[in-house]
Amino acid sequence: MAPPVLNSMANYNEKTISKIHMCVFRKFNMSLPDNAQLHFSEWNYNNNYITCGGALGTLKVVKIGLDPVDTKQNPATASLIVNQTLEGHQSATVLIATWNENHQKLTTSDTSGLIIVWGLFNEQWVEEMINNRNKSVVVGIVWNQDGTKIAIAYADGNVIVGTLEGNRIWNKELDMQLAACEWAPDGEMLIFGTADGKVVVFDETGSHFLDIPMHCLETEDLEQALAKKENQREEIVVIKYWSPTLKSKAVMEEMEKEWEKEMAKEREPQGTAVFNNYPTQKPHREYVEPDKSSEPHQPIPPDQPVVVRLPNVKITGAKWSPNGAFIAISGTDLDKEEPRHSHIHFLSAYGHKIGFFQHFETRITGICWEGTGLRMSIAADGNLFIGHVRPEFKWGALVDAIVYVFQREELSQYTTDEKHPKTVTYFENMAFFHDHCVIVSRQDDQSPNPNQYYCQLCNSIGTSIDHNFTTIPPKFLCVNGMCAVVANKDRYCIWHFVLPKYNSVQAGIHIPGKAAEYNLEEQQRPGEYGGKRSALLSGGIFYANLSDGSITKSFPISATIDSMRLNFNFLLNSPKISFPEVPFSILLYEFDGEQLTKIYACEKKDIWDYKWDTILMNPEMPTKNALQEVLIKAKQEVTNLLNSMKLDEAIDYAERTPHSELWTMIAQYALFKQEFDSAEHAFVKLGDYAGVQLLKRLRLMTSRELRNAEVMAYQDKYEEAKQLFLQSETAAELMDYDDAAKWYGQSGDTGEQIDCLIRGNMFGELEVLARALPDDSDFMEVMGDAFTSRGMCDQAVECYLRKSLPQKALKACMELNQWQKAQFIADANHMENVDGLLGKYAIEMKGESDEKSLNALALYMRAGRHLDAAKIAFDIAKDRRDKYVPYEELKQCYVLGAILKHNVLEDALDDESGLTVEQSRILENTWRGAEAYHFMMLAQQHFFEPLAAANVKQFGICSKAMMRLEALDDFEEAEKDEMRNLSFRLFSKHPPVNPNSAKVPCTACDAMIDPFDMQCKECQTKFPVCIASGRLILDNIFWLCPRCKHRAHQHEIMKYSYCPLCHDMESFRPT
């Protein structure tokens, strides 16, 4: 079985980003003579080695000392930590190099036909095997995915397939001129590209399998035909079949112990599943013609491959990204004999143009992605360039949250550590405004409307607030406080959503819940808001009215714009709009009435638009340093002044440019430096009354450490405040109480010893001391008071009683709600009636609100007065019943009262005195209220059964129900008349009797009774009711609850893990 997939690629794909930018940050000279050039660069994904080579037998293996995900490193200072020259190709030009990722081998070939396999030994690359067929040039060397087989293709048609050890598997002479070759991912097919533009497939034994039609050559547009030169050949430049990279054998050996524990999990492919969001299978073969076309093929359907045409571009190379989501294609200008202006085009796996990079005055001959997908190596002339690949992620910032999207394999939100993942299947796009965002996803292919897109409005925790459907693919999406605009090509949709709150200005122009789609004559670029502006491919901006979607203005602009950003302020009459223009210049325009005036044009040719990001290297567990704060000019100025300890100058600056953020910074700094006058001035400017009060407290403190601790606590830095407090002199004094108590104990000063134990919070030692003292000690009362303040009732009572202070012992029990203990003390000392005191205290606690009544109930429960507690529970239930609270809450009150009564009954059975007549009367019908609401809830569960009585002609049941309704006083006379008329119409056609149904015998007298009768008419036997289903129990086998003594059918109770009535779980047994 093959090793697990290498999972090093950053988490992004076509759906989670809008475009890709690249910039070169480092250039390394490979020490080639003038006019000599490199021909390739290849990046090892497992170990990050880069190999490059070219003229005069040059072959190097290098490694860059730069972590692509470390934002603190300066890329401009990156150096080569490995720079080894491999000698063996003499003076021939090295043309090809390929990595065996699994076994960490490097294979190279040159113009003389020499092939060398290199291996890593003691951190050095050494020569292992040589193959020299000095007859033709090697055009392709490829390893299969697991690195066990190698295929070598020569220009004259000779093909050799061998093993890792160098043994030949088969050799074949093909009757064609070859230009490229590639393995299929399963290692069972070889794909060859020929010099005349054909693609053929052979199986693993060398037999011809099929010919793949090249649709990019079969169809040709007019522009392409005019650009073609005379006698120009359509040659295959490169064939790349994407497959995931495996973890190398060396890496697997290092992970062997961990791998054994998680073998089952690790054997599953763990790479980023970038194609789960698409309705069709992923294109996984790419054929590139030298002049114009890149063709990623899809297995389904085979006759409709994706064809991308790059006008006036001569393609020189192409590489899949490590996750197979993108293709980078390098090329030069086709209309120039000696092109010195090179391009790199970034395409998605489905042929969509995602990004563009250009390199002046050099000819790119080789490109390769780095394993994370965030860097790229470029071979150009005699230099190796390293560039940053920066995806423009789809993300946004709400008021108090950051929202970003990433792809996960399985289905299953940061100024705080709280996150709110929201799973969105078939994600397409999202946009943000203030405290809400709009997320658009595609409908499932199996849904009734697969061509629709689902738009949902979400808040900062991912809760959906409103939704809408549209048929417009959301290539562009933007949102404001009232509506969202979805746009793609020549159509756009304006959706006026519904927010829980919006201001009065918006309320006057808001059209809640409406959405409409509109058409434009030409394709559009991203939409931004003034009213709504749409930029077109042909070079124009349309100004659309948000209320009805009508076009009110249009402005002509350049046709080469890439996107647009609007800087709109309702307080200004002239909003500004910016356009990054291809190739990478920027234009600023100003709206001046009916005119669009250019106010700025940047002449530099290296401008791109992206946001730096590290979150998506690990999107599910992002680090806090992924968020970086960039200060505005005013905050930076104040920060610099404060860092230079120029507090007065910072205050003067804030006075000239007042802002609450600046005064907050000054207040925090002044507090830290304990400059209380300056801090008070800043707090006054902020209107912070709490800050002024803090300064008053700080001025009264004599210890600097305590002041610092108070400041830290004010700034919510509690750990630092704790450490400062522990280091202060006051804390040091507290730390000495233990030693002081010991010394006072040895010296016999019991009073001071007790004082130290109390101040040092050492009540365990105080309890030991209390037991060692005699009963008549003068310190017993002091220790009893200390124990009472601490809530230690038993220890306090013991001290008071030993000192012959029963009144204080009784008072302590009452204060600590230990009423049973208080009753015992009162009885033993012939004191006043505790019941009267308890009743008086309970009456004081009871009030009109349920909360106060519940406090009194809890008081009686702690005192063991279960019957009084049950009375309060039933009073609460009666009060709630009049307020029409839900049945479930009413049942809870009645169940609580019944359980308390049940406890009274059990205590009475154990007590020889038994129950009084009044107590016996109260205990009757203990469970009636709980049963009533329990069976009412069961009846609601079976709501459709009685409602269907008329449909099954149970008119007797209907008649009883109608009579019951008419007898109620809750209806008005008009409603009662309507019910009478309904009864007359129904029962004039159908007599109010039930049809004959099967009767059952009475369990006592064998008389036949109706299965719904609660009592036998002959012997008056009452039948128990199942508390699980509400049906009668006529069997002798049933389940009995140990607590409430209610019954249920044996087969019904198996569905529960508790008693359905009293919810007892401790003694519950279903059998």
Largest sheet: 4 strands, antiparallel
| CATH homolog superfamily of the domain at 17-392 | YVTN repeat-like/Quinoprotein amine dehydrogenase
Note the gap between the termini.
50 Å
| Extended strand count | 50
Write down the Rg.
42 Å
* Sheet with most strands: strand arrangement: 1-28-27-26
**Given the helix and strand composition, which structural class is it?**
alpha+beta
Categorize the overall geometry: extended
CATH class of the domain at 17-392: Mainly Beta
CATH topology of the domain at 17-392: Methylamine Dehydrogenase, Chain H
The CATH architecture classification of the domain at 17-392 is 7 Propeller
Discrete helix count: 31
Report the mean per-residue pLDDT as an integer. 77
- The proportion of strand residues reads 25-35%
Helix content: 25-40%
Low-confidence spans: pLDDT under 50, at least 5 residues? 269-284, 291-300, 410-416, 502-510, 522-533, 569-573, 608-612
Oligomeric status of the shown chains?
single chain
